[in-house]
Specification:
7 helices; globular; binds guanosine-5'-triphosphate; binds magnesium ion; about 20% strand
């Protein structure tokens, strides 16, 4: 099976949506949470995590937002979980996300889109090392 790195972003934590979102992940048969931590991210961690976006116009506000409060970082394990959590989340821009998806149900603006999930096996390995080096 696969493992993926999931972040519940500061807007999800502030709005009291941790339980709602984790509930949707846990409801999937065969998926399990194997690491979980509430923490506030520092600049170095965010530069590593979002390095691919450095230089883009949304990069600075994105990093500022991601450091604005605690996030829930977790590793989720299961069959096809990388694609699966991305599907649960919905498209990056909540306006394009269908009702039933996390971003479709709770999102409004593209920066504050509630959840991050690794987009490939390669990203998952890289991101799990940043957030859970011991795992
Ligand atoms: P993540 O799971 O957070 O990586 O989202 P994603 O993979 O759906 O999107 P992507 O990696 O392309 O962008 C990372 C994050 O930057 C997004 O989740 C948004 O919060 C933000 N972002 C991406 N594109 C834009 C944009 O065009 N404008 C703004 N304001 N924010 C953006
Ligand atoms: Mg991404």
């Amino acid at each position: 099976s696969q493992r993926t790195l999931v972040l519940l972003k500061p807007d999800a934590v502030r709005r009291g949506l941790i339980g709602e979102i984790i509930g949707r992940i846990e409801a999937k048969a065969g998926w399990t949470i194997s690491a979980l931590e509430l923490r506030t991210l520092d600049q170095a961690t965010l530069e590593q995590h979002y390095g691919e976006h450095r230089g883009k116009p949304f990069y600075e506000p994105l990093v500022g937002f991601m450091a604005s409060g605690p996030v829930v970082a977790m590793i989720v394990e299961g069959e096809r979980v990388i694609e699966g959590v991305r599907r649960l989340a919905g498209p990056t821009d909540p306006i394009e996300a269908a009702p039933g998806s996390i971003r479709g149900d709770f999102g409004t603006i593209v920066r504050e889109n509630l959840i991050h999930a690794s987009d490939s096996e390669e990203s998952a390995i890289r991101e799990m090392k940043i957030f859970f080096p011991e795992a």
